Structures are given as structure tokens and as C-alpha cells.
């Protein structure tokens, strides 16, 4: 083929591909604004993370983060439709567009960040996988559970972590797989399983939920994984990704800079240039995100800073901040600079 014909064929190929390449990607921000509500996938009920109270109001770190995003985008933290999901339905709900964000104690892993068309916007909670047993069983470590039955939710990293740990340590467990969170708890408490495994935040929550009987159960000292839990969005809509990511960063930066839900408005006059940029007194971050100048101020006023969210949702359960302290205090929580 002559050089002229090669160039002509190449041009035709590019012309045919052009319309497909030019197709616009998803615009979640526009969809949320048109709808007037943020659709947020949460769990079916984990105290301290996402749990509906007796009036049907969702509480917890994950639920509060949804409210922060709604406040940043829509100016109203109550304009959220919470969608309960299980470990097996959560990703489909986001992939299909049923929800705009997944804020549901979900572990950031390579497989989830690479292979399913979704991506994580940050870490909301650093956790780890643990085990709970009845005190009367007199079990002091996970190795003493060799041959035991263990209740677990399928479709989770928890299930995979247990299989990996057992294989690596030449131990044998019999998993009892139950999808519903409340049902798997009940199976353990009714004696169907010798132990129940999930993230430590979940174990602390369900143990506290036993009230006077809480002391009848022990969380073993063994932690077999690191579980960075955070919100997810669909790949390809990078403006929405930035909005979710930087809303999370704003809540952390607020704690770092001493900005609270109560003093956020007054802090707009703070002489610290970074605080001014965070709260929209200066800078153009809001415009660049397609939001109002005070988008971060709205989020902070709605739910407080990261530390306030923790004190409201995790501290009452007796959960220590530990690695979820700010980096300056020896933890793993920090925000990139607002500059």
C-alpha cells in the first residue's frame, strides 16, 4: 500500500473512532443537582458507621460523610437518600448508577480499585479484621480456634482474609456464610458458630449492643489484616471523584486547623491563608470543582470536623481513635494542603 493510501486509511479509522471517543462521560454532579438529592449506599446497619435509628434517621461515620457531600454539593445535609446494601449488592448499586456514592465500610484493595470500574476517594476509617468469642469458651487467641466454626458474611474481604490466614498458618476453620449482617450476628449469639469475624469497628459495635451481656463476649487480640475503609465512586467522572475526595480532606483539614462545626463561620476571618482557602474566603477551589466558594464550609458546618464526627459516632461505643488519630498525634489521618 502506498504511503498516501496508508495515511488515508488512518484518517478514516480516526474519523470512525472520533464519535465514540468524543462521547461525554457520566456527570454525577449534574445528575445530583437535577434530582435534588444525593443517593448514598450504606450498610444494612452497623452502629457507629451507618445505622438507622428508631425514627429511621441514619447515623454513623459513613452516614455523616454522605451528609457532608450533600451539604457541599446541594447546600443541605438532609438531602440524602440512604440506600442499604449488602457486601454482595453494594458494588452493583454504584456501577449501575442506582447510587452516586458508596459510603459503606468498604475496604480499599487492589482488586476493587482496578477491576470493577470503581475507585476509592480516600480513607475514612483505618480498621482491621478481628474475632469475637464467648467468654465462657476460655479462648485467648485465634490459634486456639483451630477446627472451629466461624460466622462470616460472604462477598467480603473478611472471607478472603480468613482463608488466607488459615492457609498461611496451617489452621482449619469451617465458615458459616450468612449474607445479612443482623442474621450473621444472631447466628453467633445463638451459638451456631464458635466465633464471628468482621472489622474491629463492627465487632465493637455488636458487642456494645448486647447491653448488660456485653461482658459475656471477648474480642480476641489477634488482628489479621489492615482494612482501610473509604468512600467509592465510579471511574471516569473525575470531577465527582475530586468533589468526594476533597470533601473528605476538608473534614480532616478542619480538625488540623481547629475549625469546628460551631466556629467555622467565624474562622473565615482567620489570618491563616490555608484556613481561608479551606473555607472559601480566598482561592478558587469551589469554582474549579463546579461548586460554590463555601462548599467546604457547608460540609464542616453540617457534620463538624473529622474529630467531631468520631466523638459523635465512635467514642460512645468505646472505640479508641488509635491509628485514626491525626498524623501529628501519631495516627494515620491527614489531609493534603489546601493551596
TrEMBL record:
Record has Transport as a keyword: yes
Family, per entry: Belongs to the bacterial solute-binding protein 3 family.
GO biological process terms on file: amino acid transport
Lineage: Bacteria, Pseudomonadati, Pseudomonadota, Alphaproteobacteria, Acetobacterales
Residue segments, region Disordered: 260-280
SUPFAM superfamilies: Periplasmic binding protein-like II
UniProt xrefs under InterPro entries: Bact_solute-bind_prot3, Solute-binding_3/MltF_N
Domain Solute-binding protein family 3/N-terminal: 37-267
Protein name as catalogued: General L-amino acid transport system substrate-binding protein
Range of residues in the leader sequence: 1-22
Amino acid at each position: 500500500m502506498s504511503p498516501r493510501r496508508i495515511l488515508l486509511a488512518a484518517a478514516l479509522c480516526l474519523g470512525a473512532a472520533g464519535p465514540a471517543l468524543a462521547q461525554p462521560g457520566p456527570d454525577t454532579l449534574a445528575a445530583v443537582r437535577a434530582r435534588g438529592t444525593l443517593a448514598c449506599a450504606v450498610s444494612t446497619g452497623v452502629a457507629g458507621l451507618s445505622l438507622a435509628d428508631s425514627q429511621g434517621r441514619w447515623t454513623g461515620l459513613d452516614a455523616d460523610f454522605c451528609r457532608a457531600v450533600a451539604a457541599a454539593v446541594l447546600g443541605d445535609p438532609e438531602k440524602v437518600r440512604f440506600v442499604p446494601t449488602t457486601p454482595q449488592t453494594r458494588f452493583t448499586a454504584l456501577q449501575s448508577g442506582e447510587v452516586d456514592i458508596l459510603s459503606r465500610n468498604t475496604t480499599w484493595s487492589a482488586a476493587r480499585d482496578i477491576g470493577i470500574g470503581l475507585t476509592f476517594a480516600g480513607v475514612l476509617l483505618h480498621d482491621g479484621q478481628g474475632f469475637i468469642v464467648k467468654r465462657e469458651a476460655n479462648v485467648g487467641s485465634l490459634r486456639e480456634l483451630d477446627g472451629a466454626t466461624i460466622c462470616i458474611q460472604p462477598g467480603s474481604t473478611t472471607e478472603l482474609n480468613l482463608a488466607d490466614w488459615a492457609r498461611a498458618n496451617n489452621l482449619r476453620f469451617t465458615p458459616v456464610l450468612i449474607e445479612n449482617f443482623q442474621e450473621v450476628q444472631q447466628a453467633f449469639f445463638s451459638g451456631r458458630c464458635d466465633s464471628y469475624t468482621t472489622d474491629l469497628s463492627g465487632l465493637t459495635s455488636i458487642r456494645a449492643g448486647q447491653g448488660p451481656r456485653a461482658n459475656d463476649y471477648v474480642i480476641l487480640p489477634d488482628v489479621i489484616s489492615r482494612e482501610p475503609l473509604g468512600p467509592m465512586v465510579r471511574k471516569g467522572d473525575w470531577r465527582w471523584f475530586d468533589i468526594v475526595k476533597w470533601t473528605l480532606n476538608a473534614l480532616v483539614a478542619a480538625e488540623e486547623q481547629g475549625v469546628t462545626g460551631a466556629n467555622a463561620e467565624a474562622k473565615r476571618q482567620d489570618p491563616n491563608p490555608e484556613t481561608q482557602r479551606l473555607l472559601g474566603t480566598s482561592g478558587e477551589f469551589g469554582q474549579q470543582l463546579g461548586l460554590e466558594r463555601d462548599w467546604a464550609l457547608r460540609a464542616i458546618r453540617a457534620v463538624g470536623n473529622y474529630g467531631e464526627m468520631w466523638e459523635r459516632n465512635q467514642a460512645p461505643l468505646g472505640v479508641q481513635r488509635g491509628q485514626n488519630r491525626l498524623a501529628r498525634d501519631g495516627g494515620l489521618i491527614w489531609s493534603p494542603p489546601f493551596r
